[in-house]
Each structure stands twice: as structure tokens, then as C-alpha cells.
Amino acid sequence: MIHSSYLYIILLGVLTLQSCKPQPSKDTITESQTTLNANASGNAVWFDNFNDAQAQSIKENKPILVNFTDSDTCGLCKQLKTNVFYTVVFNEWAKNSVVLLEIDFAGKNQLSQELNDQHTAMGRSLKVTSYPTTWVLAIAHEPENNRFKVKPMGNIGYHDTPEEFIGRLQVLFPK
């Protein structure tokens, strides 16, 4: 009888510890998720690797919308996701207009050193100093040397509604 009581306490302790272990959320970017798949609500696909986003941009002949964020500490970043990125209006526009790339500097992300270095270099080269910052990048083909050139088209910060956000972005697009 005493023996089974100890077993019960040990089992209860193990189960308690398991339930305290952090569980990955749907929004967590991991190294194995180079492409963040559309979720069940039909949200557009977000990439976390510039090379993959660039390849998709070339394939679809669309600019890249890069969202620089820190999902650990940035309240406005969380609001932007909820109020804009997770809306039907934005997702329908994005699917037809841009390739999406999220650069998240959250400490919870366990990215490879290569991907972390890529994100840091992009932030520096575009002079990102606060979050959220959203850039639009055009990918141009240079036929004379068969290279692709990245051309920053402009950037915006936080906006409350998808309509306002999209309106500000469209000003950056070539006519």
C-alpha cells in the first residue's frame, strides 16, 4: 500500500512537470518551418527565410513584404498581427499582391545561426530601429549578368486597420 502511494506521487509529479513544459504555438517560427504554412483560417503563407521568399517572389513576379517584429516584447507587433495580418481583407490582398516574409527577433525562436545572421543583416541593411517595421522589396533581374537585385521600395510602421495598412503600402508600389 505504501509502495503504490509513492508511485502515485511520482506519477503525479511527472505529469505536473510535463504540463508545465512550454508548448509550441502555431505562430512560433522554427528552423524546420522555412515556410510558414497557411493555417486553417486561410491566412496567406509567411516565409522566415529570405532566400525562399526571393525565389517565390521571382516565380510569382511579386514584391516581398517584410515584417520586422519582436513577438516576445512588442505589443504593437501583436496588435498588427491581430488587427491586420489575421484579417480576411489583408490575406486576400496579400495572396494576390506580395510574397510575405516575417523577420522575428523574439528570443523564443530557436533559429539556426545562419538564419539568425540573415535576419540581423537584413535589419541592419534596411536600418530597422523599431518594431513593427514593414518594408516592401522589389526583386529585379539583371539579364546582362543573370543576377537578381533587391531594391527597397519603402517602409511603413504600425496601422490600425487592414484598409489603412494596405493603403499605405500601395503608395510604395510602382504604377
Key attributes of the depicted protein:
single chain; disordered N terminus; 175 residues; 6 helices; globular; alpha/beta; six-stranded mixed beta sheet
Descriptive report:
- The chain has 175 residues and is of the alpha/beta class.
- It is 42% helix and 21% strand.
- The protein has six helices and six strands.
- The protein has helices at 2-20, 50-60, 75-85, 88-97, 113-125, 162-170, and strands at 35-36, 46-47, 64-69, 99-104, 133-142, 147-156.
- A six-stranded mixed sheet has the order 1-2-4-3-5-6, sandwiched between helices.
- A hairpin with a 4-residue loop joins β5 (133-142) and β6.
- The protein is globular, with a radius of gyration of 20 Å.
- The relative contact order is 0.15.
Number of E-type strands: 6
Strand order of the largest sheet: 1-2-4-3-5-6
Whole-angstrom Rg: 20 Å
Structural category is alpha/beta
Strand content: 15-25%
* Order of helix and strand elements from N to C terminus: HEEHEHHEHEEH
User: What count of helical segments does DSSP give?
Assistant: 6
Return the average pLDDT rounded to an integer.
Answer: 79
Largest sheet: 6 strands, mixed
> Percentage of helical residues?
40-55%
In terms of per-residue confidence, which ranges show pLDDT below 50 for 5 or more consecutive residues? 1-40
User: For the terminal residues, how far apart are their CA atoms?
Assistant: 81 Å
Cα shape? globular
